[in-house]
C-alpha cells in the first residue's frame, strides 16, 4: 500500500546521510521532497501542509542543529510526525460495563463491511470473547447469506431472523439482537448495516435510526483504503450524519497509494482502530500507528512479526526444537518440514520478510518469492520414507528417482534439496558447538580446554642443572628454618655453620648483646 511513499522517503533520507551538518537550504529541499512524496501518495492537501510545516519547524530546532548525526535526527522527526498523524497511540475497544458491548459498522457499499464483520468477530473470539454477528443489511442481495457464511467460517453465531433481499426492518432486527445476545450470554454484538453506492439521506437516516435504537458503545466507520481522497469526503459526511468513534481501513494490501490512511485520522479527529490486510479471515489486526510509521520509513515491523510467531508456534514444540539444536542432536528433514509448516501458518513468506528492516530496498527480490516453492519442498520431503527423512545419506540415485517421481519434480531438484539440507545441518552443528565463541552453547568446553592448556606453562628441561635454573629456591623445613632472633645478628643463633676462622667463642650468646633494634 505505501510502497511508493516508502521508496520516495527512503531516497530522500539517503541523500542526507552524507552531510555532517544541515543548512536551511538542505532542510527546505528535504521538506519539499517530503511534500511531493505525500501528494503523490494521495494524501489530502491540508494534511500535507500541516505535516511539512511541523517537520520543518522541528528540523530547524536545536534537536537537529546540535545532533551528531543530523540525517538520523530528521528521520526520527519524520517518524514521530507520522506516528502523530496516524493517531499517536493504539486505540483499544471500549467495553461496556454491563455486557453486551454493541459495535455498529457503517460505511459505503463495497467498502467490505460484511467481510470485515466476520474478521472482527474472529479476532474478538481469539481474544476470549463470545461475539454475535447481526445481519441488519437487508437491502443488498444475499448480504444475509454472506454474513452467515462468514460467521460459520469464523466459528461465531449469527442472528439473522429476516431473509433480507429487501424484506424486513433492519432497525427492529438490531433491537431484537440485543435481547437475544443477553439470553445466549454473548458479551459482544457486531451489527452489519446497509451501505449505498453513494451517500444519500435514506442511508444516513437508517444508520441513525439503528444507532438510536441500540445505543452502540462503538460506531466504526469502514472505509476502503484504495479510494484515495474520496475517503476523506465520505468520512466527513458520515461524521455529520451518523457520527463514529473509530475508523477501520480495508484493502490495505492493495496497490493504491494509501493517502486515505494518512488523511482520515487528521481530518475527522477519529483514530484508526483496525486494519484489514488481505482476503483471509486472519488478515486483520488492531492498527498500531508506530508500527505503520516504521513500515512506511522501511524500518520494519519486528513487533508484529514476533506477535505472529507467538500465535503460530507452539511453545512446547519450539522449546523442544531449541533444545535439540543447542544440545547438538541431529536436525532431520522431518524437523525441517515441521518448522516450514509452522512458518507457512504465519502467512505469505513475502509479507514476513517485508517486516524486516531495510527490506524495501529488496522489493524486486521479495516479489519474486513464490510460496509454491515451499509446497514443492514439502512434497519432496513427504515422498521420502521415514528412514530417508531421518538419514538423508542413504538417498542414492535410485531413491532420488523414486522421490522425484512421487513429488512431481526433477531428480536435480531432489539432489539440490538434499545438498542444501546437508549444508544447513553442518551449520546447525557448528552453532550447537558454539564455534568457540564465548557465551555460545557448547563454547564453554573449548574455552575450558584452552584455559587448562594455558595453566600447563612452559615445559621443564630434563637436565637437572637447567631445571634448577628455572625453579625457585626450595622453602626450608621447620627443622632447617633459622630461629629469628631479631636485630642485626638475629639469624646467628641457629643458622648454618660459619666458615672456618669465623667461629664464635664457646659460650657466646649473641642474644645477650645490647644492640639497637633494626626495625
Automatic annotation (TrEMBL):
Its EC number is 3.6.5.4. Residues 271-284 form the SRP54-type proteins GTP-binding domain. InterPro entries: AAA+_ATPase (IPR003593), P-loop_NTPase (IPR027417), Signal_recog_part_SRP54_M_sf (IPR036891), Signal_recog_particl_SRP54_hlx (IPR013822), Signal_recog_particle_SRP54_M (IPR004125), SRP (IPR004780), SRP54 (IPR022941), SRP54_GTPase_dom (IPR000897). It is found in: Cytoplasm. Pfam families: SRP54, SRP54_N, SRP_SPB. It comes from the Bacteria. HAMAP family: SRP54 (MF_00306). Part of the signal recognition particle protein translocation system, which is composed of SRP and FtsY. This is Signal recognition particle protein. It comes from Nonomuraea longicatena. The lineage of its organism: Bacteria, Bacillati, Actinomycetota, Actinomycetes, Streptosporangiales.
